[in-house]
Amino acid sequence: MLALFRIVAILEGISYIALFGITMPLKYWAEIPEPNKPVGYAHGGLFIAFIVLALIVCFQKKWGIKRFIIFGIASLLPFATFYVEEKYLRPENTQPV
């Protein structure tokens, strides 16, 4: 489950950057709205998957609520899911807190 969570964390970060860094400017500055909808749906699904997997992995690994809150905040900030993957989700960094 941890490996899946790592993948979703990376994909969620990429979708966040794609949505706000590429498709939103295309929609509002270049008046090209078409890519915004599918990227938005993908990001929304990955966001939900990230939160659900964070909850599951926190229970499985017996991590505290503090780490879950860190994951939740990271899901709202650009580039933060990459930090979470690097600092918390690598196999060598998965000891209980």
Structural class: mainly alpha
Uncertain residue segments: none
**Beta-strand residue fraction:** under 5%
What is the average of the pLDDT values?
A: 92
What's the shape?
elongated
Total beta strands: 0
Question: How much helix, percentage-wise, in residues?
Answer: over 70%
Give a verbal description of the structure.
The chain is mainly α and 97 residues long. The protein has a domain at 2-17 and 43-89. Helices cover 72% and strands 0% of the residues. It has 4 helices and no strands. The chain has helices spanning 2-28, 36-60, 65-74, 80-87. Helix 1 runs antiparallel to helix 4, helix 2 (36-60) runs antiparallel to helix 3 (65-74) and helix 3 (65-74) runs antiparallel to helix 4 (80-87). The radius of gyration is 15 Å and the shape is elongated.
Fill in the keyword field for this structure.
97 residues, elongated
Short characterization:
By secondary structure, this protein is an all-alpha fold.
Secondary-structure blueprint of this entry?
Layout: H1 2-28, H2 36-60, H3 65-74, H4 80-87
Helix pairs in contact: 1-2, 1-4, 2-3, 3-4
